[in-house]
Amino acid sequence: MHISDEGLLTQLGYNSDEANLHQLRIIQEKTPGFDQIKRHILALHDHLKNYGGFVAISSSQPYFKIKLDPKDPSALEQALEEMNRWANKYKVRLQKVQDKQTYYILGLST
Question: What pLDDT, on the 0 to 100 scale, is given for residue 1?
Answer without folding.
Answer: 63
